[in-house]
Amino acid sequence: MEKSRTTLDQWVTLQAVVDYGGFAQAAEILHRTQSSVSYTISKLEQILGIEILSLEKRRAVLTHEGELLLELSREITEKAISLERKAKKIKLNNKLKINILIDPLYASDCLLNKISIFIRDNRHYDVSINKISLSKSDVLSQKENDLTITHHYIKSLQPIVLKSIKTVLVTHPEHTLQNYSNEELSKQLQQHTYISLLPDDSNNNHSIQNVNVGSVETALNLIKHSIGYSRLPLSLIQDELNKKTIKQLNMQEEDKEYRFYLYMNKNSFPVEDIKNLLSIISNKNA
């Protein structure tokens, strides 16, 4: 029986270098030194006798041969991870579970209705639904979630486009920011605390203080305590606006829409059931 001379670690390292844009970035994600990552790729090329990466303007770029090998390596590593997960499921007496992660800024009753259909029809599954905001690198590196809904667009992960969510800037009705005209507000925002649901929100760089929270409810509670301002999904806060417990800021271009995307973890087990749920959710866009 012929044995492989390369290792899964070498292929995973190559994928990290490509996916994250370089040796330094891959080293950070893999919790290794840059020299270790560089040596691993060099050893892989030595074993295969093929140049996989070439340096162009200090940037690692895949050769033609490297592109072919990369795609094949993804299939191998995905199957290896799937095998490990299957073993874990067997150990847990075949108890199946689906993990769904949803960006807290994403609001859709239609989505929950569609997930409910799957839950009712698949009683042999435990379903975990969490709302957590991820950075782009988090989306690329996360492995525990079967389905992820996020505002990050990552072409290589083959996203399914979902509907856009309209957001508005709000404060407590008596917050000092409500006293400024549209022309003055942009500058005044920099002097106040910004409550953000997104770790990479562009407003973070324009405020004197940033507070990252994991839910619309937490953001609303802070706003009601007259702490700063926040950008929140209109559909989830319309009742609070109607009750006048919060108030929109009088600012041009205050409204902003975020496009959301749905990703499936190709290493999920069993894949067919995950694809079934994916089909239910993405049908006519949740």
Strand and helix map with partners:
Blueprint: H1 8-20, H2 23-30, H3 34-48, E1 53-56, E2 59-62, H4 64-91, E3 96-102, H5 109-121, E4 125-131, H6 136-141, E5 147-150, E6 160-171, H7 182-189, E7 193-196, E8 209-212, H8 216-224, E9 229-233, H9 234-243, E10 247-248, E11 256-264, H10 271-282
Parallel strand pairs: 3-4, 3-5, 7-8, 7-9
Antiparallel strand pairs: 1-2, 5-11, 6-9, 6-10, 6-11
Helix pairs in contact: 1-2, 1-3, 1-4, 2-3
Describe what you observe in this structure.
43% of the residues lie in helices and 22% in strands. By secondary structure, it is of the alpha/beta class. The protein has helices at residues 8-20, 23-30, 34-48, 64-91, 109-121, 136-141, 182-189, 216-224, 234-243, 271-282, and strands at residues 53-56, 59-62, 96-102, 125-131, 147-150, 160-171, 193-196, 209-212, 229-233, 247-248, 256-264.
Gap from first CA to last CA: 50 Å
Tell me the strand percentage band: 15-25%
Radius of gyration: 23 Å
Uncertain runs are none
- The overall pLDDT average reads 85
User: Which structural class should the secondary elements be placed in?
Assistant: alpha/beta
Please give the share of residues in helix.
40-55%
- Listing every helix as H and every strand as E from the N terminus to the C terminus, the arrangement reads HHHEEHEHEHEEHEEHEHEEH
Give the count of helical stretches: 10
Number of strands: 11
Identify the overall geometry. Answer: globular
Main sheet characteristics: 9 strands, mixed
